[in-house]
Structures are given as structure tokens and as C-alpha cells.
Amino acid sequence: MTPPPLRRTPLYHEHIALGARMVPFAGWEMPLQFAGIIEEHHAVRRRAGLFDISHMGRLAVDGPDAAAFLRSLCTYDVTRIAVGEGHYALVCRDDGGILDDIYVFRPAPAGGGSASGGDERFLVVVNAANAQRIGERARERLPRGARATLLDRQAETAMLALQGPEARSHLEALAPGLARGLAARHCAEIQIEGRPAFISRTGYTGEDGFEIVVPAAEGPALWRWLLERSVQPCGLGARDTLRLEAALALYGNDIDESTNPFEAGLGWTVTFDDGADFVGREALLRIREAGVGRQLVCLKALERGVMRAGCPLLHDGRTVGRLTSGGFSPTLAVSIGLGYLPPDLAAPGTELQVDVRGKLLWAQVVPRPFYKRPKAG
User: Fold this and answer.
1) CATH topology (fold) of 57-152
2) Alpha-carbon gap, residue 326 to 272, rounded angstroms
């Protein structure tokens, strides 16, 4: 069977014009790199980089019952998200396996004011590979007669991520006054030259930064405007090395349907005390009570060599786990990785070996994350 053609974001021709190396990713044709992964990585850590993340799914959930409906799908109690804020959450199976990790934003109700003064509104950002199935799952679970609508806004919008220590100054030039007033994990809807834009102070790099959603037709102009300010265009390669240094889970590698929130270190995304009946609640209660048989840990190489996803982890000559993510850290100049280990081997300081294509490489469990950005001023 011939696979379906790869989808292209509204910024595809911008990437081609810059000579990007394009690769298939989650059904999309995406830029892997522009100037080079290392250069793009350092640009984000030291200055500012710009990513096209339009392949991410964007679901708008509106209506008086929107919060209650989303609560039934998500592990986190989204009713606690204040207007103008966002929160990381998970969508799980009945057995507690993770279907996707998502970010839920709560923009102001239409017409402004508090949520009690108008229809509730949410924007749910999901992983590209899971966008279709999460959308379908949500539609299937939308109760008949519920006062909530679910709209897929992916095709009609573009999404950019502006990341790095200089990101705030660039956003300030784009939207004066916004960057100073927008706290971490908060969001706002504004007008840029008379056109709507959704902006959140979030990202996937471990740096300060912003994610911006605009109408699809406006995406290329915004991309070019930021590049004209000497912001570095960045591809998926740098996005992966940056998120690995920040020890942020990658769906399909570090978390998937075979993992649960507690073993992945994501128990903080699971809310039980509100009593809500969300998908996976009973299974997750049992898992929490019984404890986990493995834990996701950070590993740093103690000698030369590059660890990769899939490499076996050995302790006293016995395989005890596998790396789920791995690579070279441009910031730390050493190989790092994420992997699952039994709880008795998961404490920082534990040393073990990584089988890198038959060569045993010594590594050590270290605190999470590998990299934490310096505090401003």
C-alpha cells in the first residue's frame, strides 16, 4: 500500500528557500536542520532560535461544559487552570498507559471577563503523531447533549516557537508590553497589526521562550520578520538535543502506551483529590498504591562515546534496562540519555554500563534535568 503523501506546514516554502534539510516526521515534511544542529542548539542556549511547530495538533474546546469534558479525558484537573494560564497534562488509556502528553491552555472567554461570565474556552496542544487519534478519541467521548464544541484548528493556523534568553526582547519588539507581563506558563490573545495571535510563555527547550499561533496565511510573514532580527532558524535536530538536556520526555521514546505517569516521573500531572472520574483513574490509583517496578532516570557518560536510544543498560553484567533517548549534549560536551531502571538502581550516583554497539560505556545516574537555565540577573 502506498503511504499517504507527507503533509507540509504553512512555512514549508520558507524552509526550502533557506536550504533546510527536510525529513519525514510524524507524517509531515519537516526541517531537520538549517545551518547545523550544533550551531542551532547553541543559538537557542545563548541567544534565540525559531522553530516551526505547526505540525503539532491544536484542538479548540469551547462551551459551558468544556472544562468538565476535558477533565474526563485528562489526568490533570483542568478546572484548576485559571483564565490566562496553561498546564501540562496526560491523556491515558483505561489501564493507565499514556496515549499522549498534552498542554492545556485556558484563554479568556469570548467577550472577555472571567470564565463564569461567558463560555469556557481551551486550547489543547497535542503531539503531531497523536493529533488525529486524540481528536478522534475526544469526539467519541463527547457526551451527547454536552454544551461543548471541539474544533481542529491545525490546518487553519501556523505555530512557531521562539526560544532562548533573547526571546523576550524579540517578542517585546513584536508586541510591546506583552513579554514583560506574561509570566511562565501563561497565555494571551492579542492583535499583531490587526491580526489575531495566541501567545504562551512555554516551550520544549529548557529555555525561556514563547509559542505563537497565528492564522496560517500569516505564518510566513511572522517567520521572516523574526529572522530579519537575526533570530536563528532551527530544525527538529536541535529541538531534540535541547529537550534532552532539559530531560523533557519525548512521546514514542520516553513515554508511550506501555508506560504510566508514575514510572515516567510525571505523577505531578495526575489529580485524584477532586474525585473526578477521568480515563485511567482506577488503574492509576492501583499503580500509585502498589508502586512502580522501574523509573525514568537521567544518565551521563563517564567516558568517550555516544549513547543512543535502544542501547541496553547493564549492571554487574546483567541487562537491567534500555535507553529511551540518547545523544551528545552540545552544552555539556558529553553524551547523555534517558532510560528506565529498577528503583534500587535509580538513585543519583549509581554507576552502570551502556552497551553501545558491543562496546561497554560507563555511565552514571545523575539528577534530573541535565541542564537548567541560569536565573536571570
Assistant:
1) Alpha-Beta Plaits (3.30.70)
2) 33
Q: On the CB side of 344, how many CA atoms lie within 13 Å of its CA?
A: 2
What does each C-alpha distance from 185 to 106, 159, 203, 375 come to in angstroms? 11, 16, 9, 17
pLDDT confidence of residue 112: 55
Exposed (0-12), middle (13-18) or buried (19+): which is 274, by Cβ within 10 Å?
A: exposed
Kindly tell me if the per-residue pLDDT of 367 is higher than 80.
yes
| CA-closest candidate to residue 292, choices 251, 250, 340 | 340
DSSP 8-state code for residue 251: B
* Cα–Cα distance for residue pair 61/106, rounded to 1 Å: 10
Cα–Cα distance measured from residue 322 to residue 345, given in angstroms and rounded to the nearest whole number: 13
Q: For the domain 293-366, what is the CATH superfamily, name and number?
A: Aminomethyltransferase beta-barrel domains (2.40.30.110)
Peptide bond into 261 cis (omega under 30): no
Q: Give the dihedral of Cα atoms 168, 174, 177, 183; nearest 10 deg.
A: -40
Grid coordinates representing 300? 551521563
Q: Which helix (H) or strand (E) holds 162?
A: strand 157-163
The x, y and z cell numbers of residue 284, run together, are 492509576
Contact 35/44 with Cβ under 8 angstroms?
no
Q: In this predicted model, what pLDDT tens digit does every residue of 247-269 receive, in sequence order?
A: 999 999 999 999 999 999 999 99
| Half-sphere CA count of 158, side-chain side, radius 13 A | 20
